[in-house]
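Protocol step 6 of 9: fold each sequence in the batch and record its structure tokens directly after the sequence line. For illustration, a two-sequence batch is reproduced in full.

Sequence one:
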Amino acid sequence: MKALQMAQQSDPVSSQLSVASRLTAPLELVEKTMSSIKIEHVVHEKYRIGESPVWEEKEGALLYVDITGQKVCRWNPQTNQVQSIAVDAPIGSLALRKSGGYVVAVGRRFGSLSWEDHSVTTLANIDEDKPNNRFNDGKVDPLGRFFAGTMSQEIRPAVVERNQGSLYTLFPDHSVVKNFDQVDISNGLDWSLDHKTFFYIDSLSYNVDAFDYDVTTAQISNRRHMYKLEKDEGIPDGMCIDAEGKLWVACYSAGRVIRLDPETGPVVSTPQTEFNLIHIFRVVH
């Protein structure tokens, strides 16, 4: 029986899991059995930076982005066909809209993407004083607010101008709140099962942080370090939470995923692979 399956994100929040690989590696599907973890190739196209897997139940398809390839992709597992839409800037993440289409974090703006006419309509601009910045990872909260963070353009993989990024929230009325700045590489994020804790990764800090979360107002507070990775564990990148409340963190440069208990720390680490995994979404059993 599959314990880890493909990503699913809807309004409000995702409910399944997928892994995307870095640079030229294909997207991965992680399947966990009782005794082992198997990595299976499901899309054999190559991407510069494959990230932000989102399962769209209505279409029966997996959405994801190629960040520096500047495109949104949609894979149909029944036909094994991949469709894509080019955008005009690096695209960090996307989410589904109740009204149809997608919200995207592209370049330095939030936008609305129409698959039918391949258009992106700007909803809000951010980091206007930092032309070298771009959006990175993002995800919707339990009530459908879209959280997404920024970073400076990479000089080379995982090397950036420090403290240039911020974490933003896009609300349904298209208003935007900056939660905090002084971020190196804004990355994985998710919420506890009771919606009272927000988990967040700034990759170059090597920390998985926790905040108190007010789901009514979408406000975060009381930041603290939950777990600090050692350098040989890799750089923390994408993250999701499973049905048991454990966090799965993809570790760039180490080719592994670690599972963390927010109360006690590491639970299990996958074997190293030839891929630099960067992104995972929700786990189901």
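Sequence two, same batch, same settings:
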Amino acid sequence: MQTIRVTCKPRGQPPNTALIAASSRRARISVQDHAFRSAFWNTQDGLRLHYRRYDPARGGVPGRPPVICLHGLTRNGRDFHRLALWLAESGWEVIVPDMRGRGQSERATDPSSYAVEQYVRDVDRLRTRLGIDRYVAIGTSMGGLMTLVTAATEPDVLAAAALNDIGPEVEPEGLRHILGYIGRQESFLSWSDAAEALRQVHGQAHPAFSEQDWLDMARRTMVEDDNERIVFDYDPAIAAPLQSNGRKEAAVPPDLWPAFTRLSARPLLLIRGAHSTLLSARTFARMQGAAPAAATVEVADAGHAPTLDEPEVRAALATMLARVD
């Protein structure tokens, strides 16, 4: 098992301050030196998949379930690095997998296996391997759909959940936007070119992003290939199921409202970007009506999807996590 050490300069308030403390638009972490372990597990169909494991600071809390962070369709586990550091410093063990075809995980030989139900089976195999009975799911976009499918099939494994800009229904406009860029085999000469390409595609979703924010996103979502070109860090074939005749059916498993109702019986946080084209205000309101005890956050200057670094999101996450048994 490879161990990677990550060093962060101390920022913001000291480690013993409340979880909800935040002094800037981007929530800050107080970790000076924190390690994650990089490891792998094997799927039933023989793929070698990668995950990061962040140990809780000061040994954590005995009996506390871990947090598993589940990324979006074209993303990978690096999206959650800052969040994972914050959670680990707050005493939570954090597991962050790269889904098949993304990041350091192997690519599938059969593109039809790039499906939400298969991703759920992959994570369940990881959970079983690690001896995890219950966990807190934090799912962005596709990761939230995975959480809903888990609620439908194995609700007892979920101790709590946060759904980031996703719900039981997705809007056709948002799906069309995703289909417009997913699977492109683009490459870039420089990181600044890569960042600009992301800004062109996602600028409306993140109007407050700085140049550095776009560069950070590029480094989370792209890598240098053998030709020293910068490319997206996912298998272009993940687009294949979505480009079939049943596009929406391939993207979103049918009839997820009963699964959402099951989630409402546990601590639940619902997050929406105010400008989201994937999770409509109408669906978000219906979700709140179906889960009146759930906490909700709408991020004013975000579309699809909030980064989870926003102070209001961190505050809501802290409140939800405080309710986990």
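Proceed to step 7 once all outputs are recorded. Observation for sequence two: Residues 2-180+255-321 form a domain with the Rossmann fold fold (CATH 3.40.50.1820).
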